[in-house]
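Sharing in case it's useful to others searching the archive later.

Someone asked me privately for the predicted structure of DsbA family protein, so I'm posting the question and my answer publicly. Question first, with the sequence:
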Amino acid sequence: MSINALLTLIVLVIAAVVIGGVLLFQGGERTASSTAQTVPAEVLRKPDSHTLTQGPGDEVTVVEFLDYQCPSCASFYRNLTKQIEREYAGRITFVPRSFPLDMHELGMPAARAAEAAALQGKYQEMYHALFDNYESWAVAADGQNLSEDREHASAQFDRFARQIGLDLEQFHRDMASPQVTERIERDKADGKKAGVSGTPTIFINGRQFEPSGETFQDVGNQFRAALDEELAR
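And my answer, the predicted structure tokens:
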């Protein structure tokens, strides 16, 4: 079973995301298609793509297309990719790419915040701030729905920017800049070329990761096994 099918079978309650410790995905946010075909490296990663970890010679490369407001992405981050980033640091190259979905009002503003931070050399810090503080900006006050409050989210992004040492005026200019828009649109275009229509969609050395597990422990074991297999080649 693919991640796509898995996410349609297991419903993630956003309130549980707020509480933490979520072990299941939310349905309806992933593409129903799957493929074992290898996607060309030049589609999945550009020379200036951001990296969370860097492996020797980029021999094992993980690419994740994500939406920062996507509850499934937040759960995946909390329960798997954050740990993978730490456990495999220096061994794999981990490339996150933006794929904000129209259904998420704050997905695009959050992607802009991440890209604006990148222009000051702080992409990784903003990436972590957005996901580590997900409930503070992405979830509505009722704890049951996703927020659509752009003003509140903007205030939170400013808070993160100050915490990671950004020049706030430059951050605001860059968020609204054509350069940032073009960067996000390029990521989205490459994602569509790779067959992505939902988030999170992950590729390991060009092949889409499609686990059969029903819990994050199962999925994590399969993900690590796939990485270890590639590292052993």
